[in-house]
Design a protein that fits this description.
Number of strands: 22
Strand content: 35-45%
Radius of gyration: 29 Å
Helix content: under 10%
Oligomer: single chain
Amino acid sequence: MHYSRIYIKGMACAALLALAACSSVDDEVVPVEPDTPERTVPVVLSVPAHDVDTRLPGDPGYYEPFMKPRYAYIFMAYQTSGGQSFVTPLITPLDEDSWEKKIYAGSLAAAGDSIYTYTGDLSIKLPEDMVSAKIYAAMSYMPLTLSTEAPANETALLGITFDVSDDLQTHLQHVYSSPYNYNISGTYYGQVKDPTSAVPYVDDMLLYHVASRIDLIWNIPEALQPEMYLTGQITAKGLKKTGCLLFRPNENTAPTTASTAAAPDATADIYDLKVTDVHPGNQWLGRQYYYAIPYKNATNNYDMKVRFTAVKTDDQTTSNGTLTVNHAYQYDIFTPWLRGDITFTSATLTDKTI
C-alpha cells in the first residue's frame, strides 16, 4: 500500500515560529491512510415489452399500449455476520430517457421476447458486515402507496402491500415486481453473489406483471341473435382493492365485503370496473380485456365475476347474467392470464344479482 509522506524541513522553522513550535528534521512521519472505497451493488432491471409468455395457448393476442415505468421500489434484504436481518430501501423516480429496448436472451422466463432495460444508476450501498443479501424490486408507471417503505426484515418486506386507486387501475398492467419464489437452479434470482468480495453483483433482473390480464369474449350464436342481444355495460364485479401483495402476487386472498352492518359506509376494499359499453356494433359479439389483482377463492382457484345485461327482442325484458372467470391451470410464480367466455345456448335467462 502506498502512503503520502509529509515532511517539515528545518529551514521552514523561522517562517512558522509565529504559528507553532519548530520541529526537527528527524520527527517521525505519520502516514495518511486513504479512505476505504465504498462497496455498492448495481441493480439492472428490465420489464417485458409485451406478454406472449403468459398468453393462453392459441390466443392471437390483443394490442395494448405500453408505458415505461416512472418509479422504482428496490429493497435489499441482508444478513450480518452477527446473524441479524435488515433491509435497505431504494425508492426513486426513473429517468424516462434511460431505457433501452432489446430482445431478451438470458435464462429467465421471457427468452426471445422484447424487453425494456433501465440504463440509469440504481446502485445500493452495502453494509460492511453484510454476509448475504437478496434484491427485491418493483417498478410502476404510477406511484405506489406501499404499506411500508422501511420494512424491518425480509419477512416484513415480503408482506408489503399496495392499494389500487382509480389512477392506478388505469395502469395496473404497468406494475411489475420480482416474484419472491422465482428460483434459478434452486436459488432466488435476485440473490447477491460474492457478497463479501470487493465487487459483489446481482444478475440482471427481469420483473413480471403483478396484475392478471382478463380477456373477456362474448358471443351470441347467430341462431339466437334475432331473439336476444346484450345492452348497457359489461362490468367486472368485486375486484380486490386493498392489501395487494407486491412481491407475492399469486398469494392474494379474496377481499372482504364492501361494508359491514356496524360500518355500512366504510371504505370498500373491493370495487367494480366498467369493462366496456355495449352498443349496436358489439351487442352480439365482442372482445375486451382488463387488468385486475388475482386472488384465490376457498377452493384455491382464481375467480373473477363479470355482470352483463341481456335483452329479449320480443318483449324487451331484461335479465342480469353473471360469469365466473377462472383459469384452467395453476400458476405458482407468475400471475395468470385469464379468459372468460360469455356464451348462450338459449334465449331463456335467469336473472342474477352480484
